[in-house]
Amino acid sequence: MKYLIIGAGPAGLTFANRLLDLGEKDFHIIEECSTAGGLCRSENVDGTPLDIGGGHFIDVRRPKVNEFLFRFMGEEEMNSYDRVTKIRTAGGRIDYPYEANIWQLPVDDEVEHLKSIAAAGCNTGEPEPGTFRDWIKWKLGKKIAEDYMFPYNEKIFSVDLNSLGTYWMNKLPDVSFEDTLRSCLTKKPYGTLPGHARFYYPKRYGAGELWLRLAERVKEYTEYDTPARELNLTEKTVNGGEYRADIIINTAPWTSFKIKGCPDGFAGSVDALKYSSIVVRYLPDVEDDTVNWEYVPSMDYDYHRILYRNTFAEGSKGSWAEINLKRYKAEEGDIAFVSEYAYPLNTVDKPERIRLILDEAQKHGVYGLGRWGEWEHYNSDLVVELSMKLAEKLENK
Question: What is the mean pLDDT of the chain?
Fold first, then answer.
């Protein structure tokens, strides 16, 4: 075929549907699971939907993405919400992001945080570090680092934080010392808003329903329960020649299959890619009336985030907690779902490793796409945008 698409998650489904929009029908999708959606799949638990890969929402900030997705699930089928998220602290809860809302802490804590931020390296002229742990202290000061950022990130990633780089820090809200001081004086937050400041969520379904609808349109081109076990770059084949294509679109983790026909350094770069796994556990008796989700840095809890689904999924009850697989201890009666591939880890050497992989693969007509194909912690709305653009670029060559 002209295109072989590995994976029927948001990236693969968007790419395939955009091909159809452009009049291209010579493509085939293989998906290792028995259903579509990837990390964004949902299951019915206790009578209401639960997103088994964690909370997945549609950001409102990309009009072209929304226009595309509303073709499959109309805006009238969704609710929109102003994001309300909290961080659990020793004395209660404050709004996210932490550094913009320390004015919500007791006055003595507020003073200690301000002193710590003022002494941070970015405010005293120290050179910017290149590793995550050192950078957090340099940017936010010792107090926020030790009370929040270090424990939270150790819980979510379960790795040495200085094995992570700093090139991905643009995902963090940008709040300067001046913004923090101004927020303490005026008792309101300053700085950039976090992602998903406003978001959509289906009224009657989990987030996975949207992707099932994209999958329905391309079902005659899709083969389920069919994992990619081997990719040969030079021959442009998958699974020992069972599938051959002019162009291969890989949305699956590069580490999940064998790669043949690759040059020196390619296999080593794939082996160097790291990721973390999560468990989503259903908590039937935990609810909140106002907060969509909460970040939990305390090591007293195994989960790093808890999502109160009753605040965005109509008619639902209970919550779900996200737990790094290394921290999870199964209990009798648990309703839990494991995602082996949850977060790509932004290790210090990842940019040059993934660049080598993507550049070399493209020489052979193989394109990495999406969270796992590009090994980036992309939200689904950005994945849709990138997938649409790649389909248009390749078809318009």
Answer: 93
**Encoded amino acid at 318, one letter:** G
pLDDT (tens digit per residue) in 265-283: 999 999 999 999 999 999 9
Burial class (CB in 10 A: 0-12, 13-18, 19+), 93: middle
pLDDT of 54: 87
Half-sphere exposure of 64 (CA within 13 A, CB side): 10
Name the architecture of domain 3-83+200-395: 3-Layer(bba) Sandwich (3.50)
Task: Count Cβ atoms within 10 A of the Cβ of residue 185 and give its class: 0-12 exposed, 13-18 middle, 19 or more buried.
Answer: exposed
- The per-residue pLDDT for range 192-208, each reduced to its tens digit, is 655 568 899 999 999 99
Residue with tokens 């968007």, as numbered in its chain: 14
Query: For the whole model, what pTM was predicted?
Result: 0.94
Task: Count other Cβ atoms within 10 Å, centred on residue 6.
Answer: 28
Which of 136, 130, 177, 175 has its CA nearest to residue 154? Answer: 136
Distance separating alpha carbons of residues 123 and 37, to the nearest angstrom: 44
- Given a cut of 90, whether residue 99 has pLDDT beyond it is no
Q: Could you state, in order of their start, the residue ranges of all structural domains in the chain?
A: 3-83+200-395, 85-186
